[in-house]
Every structure is written in structure tokens, then in C-alpha cells.
Design brief:
Radius of gyration: 15 Å
Structural class: mainly beta
Largest sheet: 5 strands, antiparallel
Helix content: 10-25%
Amino acid sequence: PTPATTRVVQIEAIGLQNRAVRTRKGVGFGSTFADLIKKYQRPDAYEINGEQIVVRFLSQYRVAFRLSRLGVDKPHVVTGVVVAAGKG
């Protein structure tokens, strides 16, 4: 029997500050919903769940973002980035 092939299917980064976490389009922790729309245009889907928003750009860019509100009068900002692998 041949050994199973191990392959990364997605990478997720969660946090508040780390300049090293950026997508190819320059979106990272602290980016706003407006930043996402400027860079990626129309999302495939989004979900609002309490203080969190998940915005998906999977079909064209294979990336999704989790945005959280970090204060009462603060805008939602990116606190999670998920990059999915392409079909291989």
C-alpha cells in the first residue's frame, strides 16, 4: 500500500495585531469591512452572529474573514483570516 498523502487544506490566523498576517491584497488584523469590500468587491456570503461577522470570498479568492467588534462604539475589525487551498 502507498502511504497517505498529507496536504494542507486551510490555514487560519486569529488575533488582534500581527503585521505578518496579511492576504495578497494586504488585508490583515484590524482591517474594516469597508477595507474588505474595497479590496475584494462582492463577498460570496456573509453571516452576522452577535458581535461577529464572517465574510467569505471563497469562489474567486479562497479567503474568508472573521470580524469582531472590540468596543461598544467601535467598528467591526478583522480578527480572523482563513485561507483555503485550491483544488489540487
